[in-house]
Automatic annotation (TrEMBL):
Coiled-coil stretches: none
Gene Ontology MF term list: NADH dehydrogenase (ubiquinone) activity; NADH dehydrogenase activity
UniProt key word Transferase: no
Family that this chain belongs to: Belongs to the inorganic carbon transporter (TC 9.A.2) DabB family.
NCBIfam families in alphabetical order: PRK08168.1 (NF006029)
NADH:quinone oxidoreductase/Mrp antiporter transmembrane domain residues: 53-291
Protein name: Probable inorganic carbon transporter subunit DabB
């Protein structure tokens, strides 16, 4: 067992404990509660088995068992057409991913002689580029990246506990897979490009769509697509420790967000009564320029800058937040916000140091065009956000809002394909599809 697998297993154990306790209350009085808890337990066992498995065969068996046991939970309410559709989509894509993973693992064994993850190293384990393309494709399928993302948006029909476990643990397996096989990915330029292009596009679209959704659970589902895309982008750039930290933080946050989604509705209603004006657009743009310049100069003064994209992401987030604090409150609140931002940055540095002390990853080669591509994606997300916020009444904004609210119609092909291969059937009782 590697430090990464041990940490991932510990995180899953904690989240599983929280989800099981929540599910015990949520399903109390349900006629099928015993069946639900049986499959929920099996899903957790399968995830933990996958996390601690080092041998290729055991890892693949664990990967398959996670998907098969999750399928039963997604159909806990089989009479719901959207639940059936989501489960069928997930089932089809999962079988494709598992086949590709089996081919990739078999090829790694044939080309390197390695039979376990711990045997892989960047010098002793050189594989063909197409093998890494397979692994990257498996990760993107598991992380619900465009255009195979639709099932993740429709599984909100499942019980809240299932959604929490899915978004906090299972969907992260794609990033976990690439982190485990990072010694092979570090020098696979074509695979990294594929990962950056698909994940970057998914991040741009998912972040933009999230701005238009009203349903709390659907917003959380779209945000998961965007967050998984960001984690995959970090991996494509070679920031493996940052991606591991992102995986941990996102899992804990998303479990909390889904388990408290009911109270989130109440909080949203309260916010409607708070009439806070938007800061002037010029002030926001000026603040972004100042923060970006300060961050890039500060980082370059302390260490070599390397990739610009991660620091640009931090700068954009801080700039938008600080400009809002400055306009909506006063100087004292702005100073307080700066102190809070500095404190959180300190927490990140400590967490990154702690992970770096225990996790050892290969160093990925620098590809400057990847940096440019991700920077353009980040600027695009910010531009769409500001456009929808400050020009909501324009004709172009209305058209963009309608298209984004429909998810740019990117899931239509998957829906038609699924209904062709596996038509939905009417279920009159819960046991019909179990």
């Amino acid at each position: 067992m590697t430090p990464l697998s041990a940490g991932f297993a510990a995180m899953i154990s904690f989240i599983g404990w929280v989800v099981v306790r929540f599910a015990a209350v949520q399903t109390r009085g349900e006629s099928e509660s015993v069946r639900f808890h049986r499959w929920l337990t099996l899903v957790l066992i399968a995830i933990l088995f996958t996390a601690i498995s080092d041998h290729f065969v055991l890892f693949w068996l664990g990967w398959v068992s996670v998907s098969l046991s999750l399928h039963k939970l997604l159909l806990f309410y089989p009479e719901r057409p959207r639940a059936q559709l989501a489960a069928h989509k997930k089932f089809i894509f999962a079988r494709v991913a598992e086949t590709m993973l089996a081919v990739a693992l078999l090829s790694i064994w044939l080309q390197t002689g390695a039979t376990s993850i711990s045997e892989l190293s960047p010098t002793a384990s050189i594989v063909s580029e197409w093998v890494m393309l397979l692994l990257v494709s498996v990760a993107m399928l598991k992380c619900a990246q465009l255009p195979v993302h639709g099932w993740l948006l429709q599984v909100v029909e499942a019980p809240t506990a299932v959604s929490a476990l899915l978004h906090a643990g299972i969907i992260n397996l794609g990033g976990y897979l690439l982190l485990q096989f990072s010694p092979l990915l570090a020098d696979a330029a074509v695979a990294r490009w594929l990962l950056a292009i698909v994940a970057g596009t998914s991040m741009l679209v998912a972040a933009a769509v999230t701005m238009t959704r009203i349903s709390v659970k659907v917003r959380l589902a779209w945000s998961t697509v965007a967050q998984m895309a960001l984690m995959l982008v970090e991996i494509s750039l070679g920031f493996y420790t940052l991606a591991a930290l992102h995986l941990l933080a996102h899992s804990c946050y998303k479990a909390y967000a889904f388990l408290t989604s009911g109270s989130a509705v109440e909080q949203r209603e309260r916010q409607r009564f708070v009439q806070l004006g938007l800061p002037p657009l010029k002030a926001v743009i000026g603040g972004l320029i100042v923060v970006i310049t300060a961050v890039l100069l500060g980082v370059s003064a302390v260490t070599s800058l390397g990739y610009v994209a991660p620091w640009l992401a931090v700068s954009l987030a801080l700039g938008l937040w600080l400009s809002t604090m400055f306009e909506r409150f006063n100087i004292s609140e702005l100073l307080r916000a700066i102190c809070v931002a500095a404190a959180w940055f300190g927490v990140y540095l400590v967490a990154n140091w702690a992970l770096s002390a225990h996790l050892t990853f290969s160093t990925a080669s620098y590809i400057w065009l990847l940096d440019v591509w991700i920077c353009l994606v980040l600027i695009g997300i910010t531009s769409v956000y500001l456009w929808l916020l400050y020009r909501p009444q324009s004709a172009h904004s209305s058209q963009l809002f309608v298209a984004l609210n429909a998810g740019l119609y990117l899931d239509e092909w998957a829906t038609r394909l699924t209904l062709t291969l596996w038509p939905l059937r009417n279920s009159q009782h819960k046991g019909a599809s179990s």
